[in-house]
Amino acid sequence: MEMRGIVSEFIGMIFLIILVVGSGIMGEKLAAGNTTFALLANEIATGVGLFVLISKFGPISDTHFNPAVNIATSFTNTFAGIRQFKEKV
Questions:
Q1: Range(s) of the domain holding residue 63
Q2: How many helices (H) and strands (E) are present in the chain, helices listed first?
Q3: Could you tell me the end-to-end alpha-carbon distance of the chain, in angstroms, rounded to an integer?
């Protein structure tokens, strides 16, 4: 993976961590004790945020946002197969 992809994966992973923690805090503060509403707010905020992150970082780095996946695919060179599939579709 090129350096641009590695940097975008790292930045995306940091944004994802901030997003998940922030949406959990937001859901808890908005819910006022209602667990169902807290989970729903957390889920919606995380889903929308993940969609935005994937749409912005997807063209740059295949958007795994998971260091374990990045390390494994760098050793097995499966990024090449993914890119070939994306080009055909």
A1: 3-88
A2: 4, 0
A3: 21
